[in-house]
Amino acid sequence: MYEGKIIKYYREKSQMTQEQLGKGICSSTHISKIERSQTEYANEIIALLSVRLGIKIENEILKLKNIKMRINSWQQSIAMQLNDEIEEINLELEQEELIQISNYVNQYKLLRIRYLLMKNLMNEAKELINEIKKIKHKLSPYEVNLFRHVQGIYHLTNHEPLLAIQVLKKINNEEYANEEYYYHLASAYHSNDLPVMAYFYADKARQYFKSINSYLRVIDSEMLMLIQIKDNEEFSETIKRFENLIQSCEICRSSDRKARVYHNLAFEYYRRKNYELAKKYYFESMKLKDTNSIPYLLSLEGYIRSSYFGELLPKGELLQYVGKGFDIASKKNDKLFINLFILLDFLILEKEQEYHQFLAEHSLPFFKKLGFAYLIKHSEKELFNYYFKRKQTRKALGMANTLINQ
Fold first, then answer.
1. Torsion angle defined by CA atoms of residues 297, 298, 301 and 306, in that order, rounded to the nearest 10 degrees
2. Which segments of the protein form a coiled coil according to its record (predicted)?
3. Are 113 and 125 in contact (CB under 8 A)?
């Protein structure tokens, strides 16, 4: 079985016809049947064909058999976020030309999408997703569900939590033995401000990560669970749990997770209007992030907002930060953060009318399209207060009706 695939691959690579390859060894018809695994063949013939192709057939068979094991190891490394191992296997698979004739080429391409998303290479990931869509009918049941998982991660990365929920909920557990997707489903519910569902799936993800001894991902799940609790416990208790997570990140030497914990802690202080501590922890988070990344923009936006409402930085410095954030978002063509930094610019410049007009005509419709419930609710409350203050009764009532019916 393996011999035929390998012979055909290297024959075509060498731009040889079946007749040229078989000359003096066997007929072109026999070559055709060997390549399609439709006949029995003598080992001597395979040996002669291999010599003519300049390959050692035993080595090539071992490489082809090894592909499945390495792809499975790659998937496990990605799920556990073992970065060194991910990069090592990625390089190995990139250099393995026989992957194109293996039975696992589609699984490789799907995991390749995950790798690209980890690197924030959205355009390349989108191209590969479109390529897979064209051959979706050829995928195995497992690969169909892996594709759903990958698409869900793509939608999350692209700030589309509603689409992420829709596709991730279609995953069939009986066909897809990879419960890591519970974490991404929990993240999507969190982005859509559905804390009960987010907590439920984050807990299921935590149980799965414990079962595979992935302590880093347990930290991720526990953090996601923690930020769903809201005001159901004493804030001092919440702070202790954040401090424990920070300590866990330090023990694991995971600066990216520590940055996420700092960011979430900052938001807890922000929503309690403790702007000074919010600013402090947003800044701690920013220091640990790549300054040209989307996660950095997320913390930068919180840092600017906390500093503005707490009157902690002069207007000129705030506007410099806004300009920096807008430039990064524009280079990445990230429409969500372009919107957020435009709003911050209007806010700091005290252009009240322009701020609320942009919020109503551009930002709110965009937030609704993406499905960011927190931003939607916050924007609608802002607009209601603005219309009420300006005695624009019809608009205020319309916004109030929207808020009541949520």
1. -140
2. 79-138
3. yes
Q: Which of 118, 115, 167 is nearest to 145 (CA)?
A: 167
What's the Cα-to-Cα distance from 9 to each of 33, 228, 248, rounded to whole Å? Answer: 14, 53, 49
Q: Is the dihedral of CA 137, 140, 142, 147 positive or negative?
A: negative
| CA 229 to each of CA 133, 268, 274: distance values in angstroms, whole numbers, following the listed order | 39, 11, 19
Q: Where are the beta strands (DSSP E) in 82-158?
A: none
Q: Which one, of 278, 282, 279, 206, lies nearest residue 248 by Cα?
A: 206
pTM score of the predicted model: 0.82
Q: What is the pLDDT of residue 23?
A: 93
390 and 367, same structural domain? yes
Six token digits for residue 358 = 């942009």
- The Cα–Cα gap between 251 and 87 comes to 23
Q: What is the tens place of the pLDDT at every residue in 250-277?
A: 998 999 999 999 999 999 999 999 999 9
Residues 237 and 335 grouped into a single domain = yes
259, containing H or E segment = helix 255-271
Residue-wise pLDDT tens digits, 343-362: 999 999 999 999 999 999 99
Which of 279, 302, 299 has its CA nearest to residue 291?
299
CA distance 199 to 375: 20
CA–CA gap between residue 202 and residue 180 (Å, rounded): 10
- Residue 199 in any domain: the answer is no
Does residue 86 sit in the same domain as residue 159?
Answer: yes
Cα 111 from Cα 77, distance rounded (Å): 11
DSSP code at position 159 = T
* Residue among 183, 179, 141 nearest 164 (CA): 183
Exposed/middle/buried for residue 78 (C-beta within 10 Å: 0-12, 13-18, 19+): buried
CA angle 101, 102, 103 (to 5 degrees): 125
Dihedral angle computed from the Cα positions of residues 287, 289, 291 and 292, in that order, rounded to the nearest 10 degrees: -170
Residue 20 corresponds to which tokens in the numbers above?
Answer: 């040229």
Structure tokens that stand for 290 in this block: 């790549």
Closest by alpha carbon to 202, among 185, 177, 215? 185
Judgement on whether residues 238 and 328 belong to the same structural domain of the protein: yes
**Rounded-to-integer distance, Cα 250 and Cα 242, Å:** 12
What's the rounded Cα separation, in Å, for the pair 379 and 361?
A: 11
141-157 and 105-118 are packed helices; what angle lies between their axes, rounded to 10 degrees? 10
